[in-house]
Amino acid sequence: MMRSGLGYDLHRLEPGRKLVLGGVEVPSDKGPVGHSDGDVLSHAICDALLGAAGLGDIGMHFPDDDPQWKGAASLLFLEHVRKLLDGRGLHIAHIDAVVVLERPRLGPHFPAMRQKLAATLGISPEQINLKAKTSEGTGAIGRSEAIAAYAIATLES
Ligand code: MG
């Protein structure tokens, strides 16, 4: 059986914070504000995987008022979700994601992100596709006040 799930996340950006995406630090003058490391790509993928598995959402599994997750590397969330999937005999067939941000350009960092995400999820980098879009200068993302990500995951059992 094949099942798909959709994930979305957005974080505010502020100067002087680290920009971590897919577990990789990307040089940037701004980074996300968040309880964890604010890795929107990992959060969107988490929600896509949980959605496909019928297991709710990231907030249910990793509450943002839980001190355990303060400053947490979001790859830990993915590791936990991987265990939930393993326990149910669900296998990741494919993940596709889009990060929406004005700058910097992410293309050069995608290979490292795919490696890291794949290693964390126990799949091959070929099973993960990453894309980036700007907001053409419009809205909060266009003004570099926010960063967002969308992901879709397909599971097979
Ligand atoms: Mg988030």
General description of the model:
The protein contains five helices and seven strands. The strands form two sheets. It has a five-stranded mixed sheet. Helix 1 packs parallel to helix 3. By secondary structure, the chain is an alpha+beta fold. It has one domain (2-156): 2-Layer Sandwich (60s Ribosomal Protein L30, Chain: A). Magnesium ion binds next to strand 1 and helix 1. Magnesium ion binds at residues 9, 11, 34, 40, 43.
Concise account of the structure shown:
This protein is an alpha+beta fold and 157 residues long.
Number of strand segments: 7
Return the CATH class.
Answer: Alpha Beta
Largest sheet: 5 strands, mixed
Whole-angstrom Rg: 15 Å
User: What overall form do the CA principal axes indicate?
Assistant: globular
Q: List low-confidence stretches.
A: none
CATH superfamily: 2-C-methyl-D-erythritol 2,4-cyclodiphosphate synthase
Topology, element by element:
Elements: E1 2-15, E2 19-21, E3 24-26, E4 30-32, H1 40-53, H2 58-61, H3 75-87, E5 91-100, H4 110-121, E6 128-133, H5 139-142, E7 146-156
Parallel strand pairs: 5-6
Antiparallel strand pairs: 1-4, 1-7, 2-3, 5-7
Helix pairs in contact: 1-3
Bound molecules: magnesium ion (MG).
Magnesium ion (MG) binds at residues 9, 11, 34, 40, 43.
